[in-house]
Amino acid sequence: MRIKSQKDFWSGLMFIIVGGSFAIGALNYSFGSSARPGPAYFPFGLGVLLAILGGMILFEALTIETEDGEPIGAFAWKPLFIILGAVILFGFMLPRIGMVISLPILVLISAYASDEHTWVGTIVNATILTVMSWLVFVVGLKLTIPLWPAFMG
Full-prediction pTM beyond 0.70? Predict the structure, then answer.
């Protein structure tokens, strides 16, 4: 069997590996029931869905002919390190300065990974993401996430 789309083949394979890993990792936790799902419920389901999606993409890469085989280009190291650094910085900052400050900083730093970002779009994105995160995690799920730095109360 010949690979007809390099990009789809490797991305499908990546989805299968990541999804399968999450599903297998979730087996170490309690599933609970449909009425009261346990900690394994969501990661297992999401992992299985991601693996199925990867299988569909992989199947398409092996069956649907593309004009040039869609070769994989150069690996984008700079965006990878920018995003990874921003997430690590966010994990460090969240308990110290709170979500209202650290989440917009995460979005602003991550925007540098794209050559197409605009300041207006980045600020709007940071604002919406911060408000929605507050609504979902603090108001909706009642998680104890620090919103502001400790010295601000």
Answer: no
